[in-house]
Amino acid sequence: MHGEDVKQEKSGRYVISKIVKEHNHPLIVASSKDHDGKDKKIQELSSELNQANEELVLCREQLCAIMASIEEHTDRLSKTIDGALRNIKEVESRDHCSHNL
After folding, report:
1. pLDDT per residue as tens digits for the range 14-48
2. Ranges of each domain in the chain
3. The Cα angle at residue 79 between residues 73 and 84, in degrees rounded to 5
């Protein structure tokens, strides 16, 4: 605690052994209305968090789908490039053979 030292005795009673007046403030007991307002705010924030988590799940699913699509496209491009390179090598090989004749 900031302004006082409080200890519990074996009997269960609490004893204040030190008080620093500069740090004291009036005792404020929150009313049930304050708790209701705080509980409502906690419920609102929890609801917003749950909604944000649901949106995050949807975004992750969309991202995974996009990444899978990119991977498929990359594979197709790689196969196309490999085929083009084989064709170029064939043409070069034929040209090389025809020039040697």
Report:
1. 887 777 666 556 666 666 666 778 888 999 999 99
2. 70-101
3. 125
